[in-house]
Amino acid sequence: xxxxxxxxxxxxxxxxxxxxxxxxxxxxxxxxxxxxxxxxxxxxxxxxxxxxxxxxxxxxxxxxxxxxxxxxxxxxxxxxxxxxxxxxxxxxxxxxxxxxxxxxxxxxxxxxxxxxxxxxxxxxxxxxxxxxxxxxxxxxxxxxxxxxxxxxxxxxxxxxxxxxx
Length: 165
What we know:
alpha+beta, two-stranded antiparallel sheet, 13% helix, elongated
């Protein structure tokens, strides 16, 4: 099985935490924010019983790669989260930004347009229904990263910004 396709789930009666190790960029935000839940040396490494659903949702919403997500069991929690969902990406800029990419390094490109660290994801996508694009370049290179978020060649600019009004 391809590592990118592995999904692990950790549940209690309020929430299911979903972890996709193949897209994790190991920012350690989860471990640093809720060490009582996330213990990389533990087995299992995620213990959802060590925090409430609200606490877990708040922490998972900070995951920059989208490797952590959740499903809620509680209907009132679902309704609160549903009101935050947005349908489309926000234009972060109308020209691309040139960046240096390092081979083999995982990068998380902001696809929602809300990140304060453009073109990279800072976790602001949570609640938008849009996940970042995580990729590892095969070689060191410069690249034009899309800022309008409308490219057909995520995460790279394809000139679509020139057609925006």
